[in-house]
Amino acid sequence: MFAHRAMALALLVLGVAATALAARADDLTYHNSRYGTSATFPVEAFPNRMPSPTNGDGMAWTSNDGAELYIYARANTGGETPASIVAKRADDDEVTYRRTGKTWAVVSGYRKDKIFYERYILRGDLIHSVAIRYPRALRDTYDDLVGPVTMTLRGKGS
């Protein structure tokens, strides 16, 4: 009887693991070979890939309902810091949330009719970023994606 319960438990665990993997099968990890920037997101949320920029700094995707996702990097030629990145955003937009660390920054708020959330990682002379923008009316749809997507941002320094 114990062996049957152990087998049933093992099958249940495998079933849960398989379900979790299946749920993640539609995630896409974008990796930029020029700068080493990467992030993962659910394809169903951002199904439309935009044309590649000619400078090769990143990529963008959109949804059918007006949301946008940007994953990119740029050179830090101006000696930017996490604090200066957040301050610049506050010059241009209504910032409602900001946090900085020694090598990272997170900033969120409103730009015209959209909510924006951006995460930056500073590595060497590069600034890696993931940005999500979506209409205010779609807050319930996209707010839950912000953390899981932006926390996948990775970048190498040069």
Features:
alpha+beta; two-stranded antiparallel ribbon; 3 helices; 9 strands; disordered N terminus
Write the layout of secondary structure elements.
Elements: H1 2-24, E1 27-31, E2 38-42, E3 48-49, E4 58-62, E5 68-75, H2 82-92, E6 94-100, E7 104-111, E8 114-123, E9 126-135, H3 139-150
Structure description:
With about 160 residues, the protein is of the alpha+beta class. It has one domain (about 25-150): Protein Transport Mog1p, Chain A (3-Layer(aba) Sandwich), CATH 3.40.1000. About 30% of the residues lie in helices and about 40% in strands. It is built from 3 helices and 9 strands; from the N terminus they run αβββββαββββα. The strands form 2 sheets. Strands 3-4-5-9-8-7-6 form a 7-stranded antiparallel beta sheet, sandwiched between helices. The longest helix has 23 residues, at about 1-25. The N and C termini lie far apart (about 60 Å).
Let me know the number of strands: 9
Give the CA-CA distance, first to last residue: 59 Å
Question: In CATH's first tier, which class applies?
Answer: Alpha Beta
Major sheet details: 7 strands, antiparallel
* CATH architecture title: 3-Layer(aba) Sandwich
CATH topology: Protein Transport Mog1p, Chain A
The CATH superfamily label reads: Mog1/PsbP, alpha/beta/alpha sandwich
Give the low-confidence spans: 1-23
Q: Work out the radius of gyration.
A: 19 Å
Shape: globular
Structure at a glance:
The protein is an alpha+beta fold.
